[in-house]
User: Which sequence fits this backbone?
């Protein structure tokens, strides 16, 4: 079985390294040959720095030691997101990754609702917020790789992360090609037979994985799979990213959580890496000015990068013998760090359903259904952050909190 991954961003390299490690094992003969082709000219999106705890299971299955990964990708621990000024100016709440295990008869939420609510709910289910505020790590130095008493994830340098996985996968025998896919050859039934490159190569495979990011070279441009927009529920459609070295604004500790501060027309991310901080901010053209005002004069001479995106997903990420994973499959927005999570979900489910014997019809339907459910749950979750806000101070917040902006599934839950 030959698999060709097209695209070498985080999605492409997670997919290649994961498929190879999980389907073949490490250091054993290969039954599935994995190749990856990436363009040098186009480059990676280079953002995607905050993760959620599922990333540990993914890295463990790829079989990369935790310390080696953290050092190579400048990673730091992330234990929570702190939301500043979302409910109203001056208020903050945490989304901690840890909580007491919910059992079938868990009445914790009901008990909290019946209380005077003077202690925030999150603080009653985990000590993690205390750890965040003290600037402490979620584990001790001698805890085993990817283990600890408290749930955690990482912040990391997206470019270095992709490069780390690339070096690991290539060393294990994943075939790496640098070239641009310029043409796609299809069979009579509409499957992909081969891709052709600018340098004149023709590469065949049994299964093609589209990891070409927003370009959607296979799933969109070739196969024409429709894109379902989520812009009615998620209003943000752009970001300004800036990298702030620590010597510009020294902090006592690298913060073990991400901060998302609500601003006039969106919000700003603050992600602490081991050698710098990364910040994104989502609004319109004035975003950069507002981001600079928020950060302060120490950023005046730092360059900022504008990124535009359409929130939504490819209706059916698996069509014929092509599976879209990563930005080519969909993107919501950076809040709650779901980008890499969808990559992890996609590749994990693909290995579970892997078409070792050729037939794909049933597997495709299962895969598409599961991925649709994952996206819809996540849209509801992110949408909830906006619609429950009490802010009405700007046109953005008045629109984001309007009744027609609540997703129908969330509305049904509110009414329960
Ligand atoms: P890309 O990085 O764009 O890679 C595309 C690859 O395809 C490149 O290697 C390119 O060379 C190749 N390519 C394209 N066309 C061709 C061609 N014709 N031939 C050959 N190769 C080709 N996710 C998180 O989990 N956490 C976050 O905090 C987060 N923040 C984000 C902030 C913003 C503003 C945005 C836009 C996204 C964010 N994401 C985040 C999402 C995250 O960045 C992506 O999910 C992740 O980086 C995977 O991207 P990708 O590999 O799909 O695409």
Assistant:
């Amino acid at each position: 079985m030959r698999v060709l991954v097209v695209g070498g961003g985080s999605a492409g390299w997670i997919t290649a390294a994961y498929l190879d490690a999980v389907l073949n094992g490490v250091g054993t003969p290969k039954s599935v040959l994995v190749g990856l082709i990436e363009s040098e000219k186009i480059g990676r999106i280079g953002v995607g720095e905050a993760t959620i705890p599922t990333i540990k299971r993914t890295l463990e299955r790829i079989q990369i030691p935790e310390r080696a990964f953290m050092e190579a990708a400048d990673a730091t621990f992330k234990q929570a997101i702190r939301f500043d000024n979302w409910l109203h100016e001056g208020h903050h709440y945490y989304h901690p990754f840890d909580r007491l295990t919910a059992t079938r008869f868990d009445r914790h939420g009901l008990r909290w609702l019946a209380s005077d609510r003077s202690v925030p709910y999150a603080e009653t289910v985990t000590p993690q917020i205390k750890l965040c505020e003290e600037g402490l790590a979620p584990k001790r130095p001698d805890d085993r790789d990817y283990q600890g008493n408290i749930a955690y994830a990482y912040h990391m340098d997206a470019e270095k992360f992709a490069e780390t996985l690339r070096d690991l996968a290539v060393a294990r025998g994943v075939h790496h090609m640098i070239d641009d896919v310029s043409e796609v050859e299809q069979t009579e039934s509409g499957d992909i037979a081969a891709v052709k490159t600018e340098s004149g190569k023709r590469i065949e495979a049994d299964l093609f994985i589209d990891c070409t990011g927003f370009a959607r070279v296979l799933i969109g441009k070739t196969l024409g799979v429709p894109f379902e927009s989520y812009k009615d529920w998620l209003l943000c459609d752009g970001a300004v990213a800036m990298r702030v070295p620590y010597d510009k604004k020294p902090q006592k500790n690298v913060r073990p959580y991400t901060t998302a501060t609500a601003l006039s027309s969106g919000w700003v991310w603050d992600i602490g890496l081991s050698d710098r901080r990364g910040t994104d901010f989502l609004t319109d053209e004035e975003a950069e000015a507002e981001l600079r005002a928020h950060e302060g004069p120490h950023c005046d001479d730092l360059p900022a990068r504008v990124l535009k995106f359409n929130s939504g997903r490819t209706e059916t990420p698996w069509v014929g013998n092509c599976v879209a994973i990563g930005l080519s499959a969909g993107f919501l927005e950076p809040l709650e760090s779901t980008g890499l999570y969808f990559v992890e979900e996609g590749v994990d489910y693909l290995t579970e359903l892997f078409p070792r014997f050729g037939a794909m019809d049933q597997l495709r339907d299962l895969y598409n259904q599961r991925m649709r459910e994952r996206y819809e749950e996540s849209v509801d979750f992110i949408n909830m952050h906006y619609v429950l806000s009490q802010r009405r101070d700007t046109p953005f917040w008045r629109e984001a909190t309007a009744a027609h902006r609540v997703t129908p599934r969330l509305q049904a839950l509110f009414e329960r």
